[in-house]
Write the structure tokens for this entry.
Amino acid sequence: MLKRLKRKEVKVMNEHVDELTKKMESLKEGALPLKEKAISLKQTLEAERAKQNRLGYQKLHERLNYVLSYFQDYDQNILDAKTLINDLKEGNQTDDDITDIIANFDEYILELIDIKVELSDIEDELNVLSKKKPANSSVLEFKEFGDMIGDAFKKAFSKDDSSNPNSKTSKLLKILPFLAEEEKAKIVEEILSDSEYFQDVKLAVILPFLNQEACDKIFMHEVKKESKNLQTLVPFVSEELLGELVDQYIEGKIDMNMDILYPFLKMEDIKKLFFYELKQEN
Amino acid sequence: MIDLRSVGKKIQSLRVSNHLTQDELAEKLYVSRQALSKWENGQSIPTIDNILLLSRLFNVTFEEILCLNEKTEFDENDLFKSHDRYLIINKIMSGELVVDLPTVFYQFSPLERMTLLKKVKEGSLKVNISDLSTKLTTSELKYLLGGNYVKTT
């Protein structure tokens, strides 16, 4: 009796096992396409990610090339500057030539600030792409190289190293795009009240982020102060204000160096100014 | 606004057609050869007095030297070729020069890019924002889109 019962149990068990095996095989059959689908999806995702990375790297490559193109002319610029400084030794340079030389160096410094910002942006992008900390990246080394050149220029041409003007300008440059209009208005107020903090900040770097009215106000303030850096500010002044200055100059109400202004005037104002100068000569 | 490079080329062509070397012309104008070289390369521009002196010397009008009546040609692939950077940016911002901004955006320096983005943000420079967005850095996107910026990576 017991034997018969056991045989029956074994039979039931065997039937269960058969059933389960069949189910397993059917699941396996169903799972195979799913596995293939998952593999293909993974491949697509990887390809897409690789494509995105490739595009990102391509974009970075373009921008690095652009930064490098900045440096292409730098050796020549520095050689030209060296020639000009050597000529200074001969002592036959006019005040205008010297102002010109200083303006050249101001331009180089502005360009270097530009490069530093660009490199810092590239570094950000690279960090996003690689999702790594910037610790040992070559871009950081390149940025440090930029900083190094910037520091060398700063030390060589800054009137007062302790005030560290470039770093102040750099800091401002990083936050300015994200400031609200009210905050920018406060900065403008500070500049207009000759706040000590802004004494050694390069205004030409700040003006692109301010509205036209603020740019015009700051320029007029600098005109009244007879600032020597007007040349770098003129590009950000409205043509209307420049036109008004031409009129005031012709009427004898102001006396300022129109040589720095005329390249940025409207055609009719240029003609007005030159005809006036011709009339004066005659 | 004056195109410094065009003025430089004009001065150079007038000098060459009058068979003068840079040294000779510089001497006539009482300026250094380096100063003249910088004018011709578009790195700086003569003073008003010097423009008038040049116009007398070469018997041309100041308008001709300053290229005031000349139509400027631009190449979108190399916007700054033979042109002053300020001039190009000014013309784009004033709408005088119409370019496909997203396509040419890589040609501008970071400060120039921010200057242009400021105009886009103010609405005075019309551009397809979604096309331009793909060409911007993270911080530029944050600046342009402000609170609407969503990090996608």
